[in-house]
């Protein structure tokens, strides 16, 4: 569903600030895989997600989504393939519009639009049923402005909006980092449920090793723009936090007694 072939990206080339953010990176995601990505600051995690989303054009290599070469496509054209939830709960929704209006915009994404605007009765019932899944009582607040919601409620709504059209690829960009632990756990639980029930292919960046171990069926560790560890299936299920630290130290050649190198 996602294929990166020898992808490279350098910021500020030819200057003293030159940074090789991605270095000949290869990554393949099969349909239905839920991959978590961890690594320290500067490892290339966010660059990877932004390169896939088309925020930045890569210097070399190819990016394919469901067999289609999207390497040269700008961000707005890749949106037809991708759903994304950002770290900031304020992104991804229109705060001055109602909950049902936000859902209607997400539902019409990629479709031909005319001058007619409005939420039909059938759509309203569909949104009400989908909101019930979140377990946050939002199904009774369809006409409330999104700006009135808490950060956790907005992030849960954004997650629902991003998956409404069942995208080829769901990108979760540290989407619980700004939430308190209890709400973050709830949003992660919803993420698991939405990915599984819709059969989505997902790529989730996190700074939290426990979350990376607990969610998804595959874990990738990055360092200096490269993938240095890729574990899936039964092996991932039995991984511990200490296992990851030990493997990082061995592969990256850096000895650390704490997880600060990953979670800085």
Describe the structure.
This protein has 264 residues and is an alpha/beta fold. The protein has a single domain (2-94, 149-263), classed as P-loop containing nucleotide triphosphate hydrolases (Rossmann fold). Helix content is 35%, strand content 23%. It contains 10 helices and 10 strands. It has helices at 45-53, 75-78, 99-107, 121-132, 151-163, 181-198, 209-214, 233-237, 241-252, 260-263; strands at 2-11, 19-29, 34-38, 60-65, 68-69, 82-85, 169-173, 202-205, 218-223, 226-232. The strands form 2 sheets. The chain has a 6-stranded mixed beta sheet with strand order 6-7-8-3-9-10, with helices on both faces. Strands 2-1-4-5 form a 4-stranded antiparallel beta sheet, covered by helices on one side. Strand 9 and strand 10 form a beta hairpin. Helix 3 packs parallel to helix 5 and helix 5 runs parallel beside helix 6 (181-198). The protein is globular and about 55 Å long. The relative contact order is 0.18. The model has no long low-confidence stretch (mean pLDDT 87).
Brief overview, please?
The chain is an alpha/beta fold.
Q: What's the overall average pLDDT, rounded?
A: 87
Strand order in the sheet with the most strands: 6-7-8-3-9-10
Class computed from helices, strands and strand pairing: alpha/beta
The 3D shape can be described as globular
Main pleated sheet: 6 strands, mixed
In terms of per-residue confidence, which ranges show pLDDT below 50 for 5 or more consecutive residues?
A: none
CATH topology: Rossmann fold
Instruction: Count helical runs.
Output: 10
Q: Please tell me the total number of domains.
A: 1
The count of strands amounts to 10
What is the first-to-last residue Cα distance? Answer: 31 Å
Topology order in helix (H) and strand (E) letters: EEEHEEHEHHHEHEHEEHHH
- Rg over alpha carbons: 19 Å
Oligomeric grouping of the chains:
single chain
């Amino acid at each position: 569903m996602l294929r990166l072939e020898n992808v490279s990206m350098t910021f500020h080339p030819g200057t003293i600030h030159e940074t090789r953010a991605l270095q000949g990176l290869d990554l393949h995601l099969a349909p239905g895989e839920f991959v978590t990505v961890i690594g320290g600051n500067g490892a290339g995690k966010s660059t990877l997600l932004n390169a896939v989303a088309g925020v930045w054009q890569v210097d070399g290599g190819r990016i394919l989504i469901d067999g289609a070469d999207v390497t040269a496509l700008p961000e707005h054209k890749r949106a037809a393939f991708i759903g994304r939830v950002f770290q900031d709960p304020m992104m991804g929704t229109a705060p001055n519009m109602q909950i049902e209006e936000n859902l209607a915009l997400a539902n019409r994404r990629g479709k031909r639009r005319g001058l007619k605007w409005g939420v039909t009765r059938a759509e309203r019932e569909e949104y009400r049923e989908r909101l019930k899944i979140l377990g946050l009582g939002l199904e009774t607040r369809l006409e409330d402005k999104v700006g009135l919601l808490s950060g956790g409620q907005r992030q849960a709504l954004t997650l629902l909006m991003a998956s409404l059209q069942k995208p080829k690829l769901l990108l979760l960009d540290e989407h619980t980092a700004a939430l308190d632990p209890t709400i973050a756990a709830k949003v992660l639980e919803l993420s698991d449920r939405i990915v599984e029930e819709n059969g989505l292919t997902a790529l989730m960046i996190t700074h939290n090793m426990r979350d990376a171990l607990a969610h998804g069926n595959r874990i990738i560790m990055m360092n200096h723009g490269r993938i240095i560890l890729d574990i899936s299936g039964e092996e991932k299920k039995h991984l511990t936090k200490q296992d990851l630290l030990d493997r990082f130290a061995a592969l990256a050649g850096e000895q650390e007694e704490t997880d600060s190198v990953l979670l800085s």
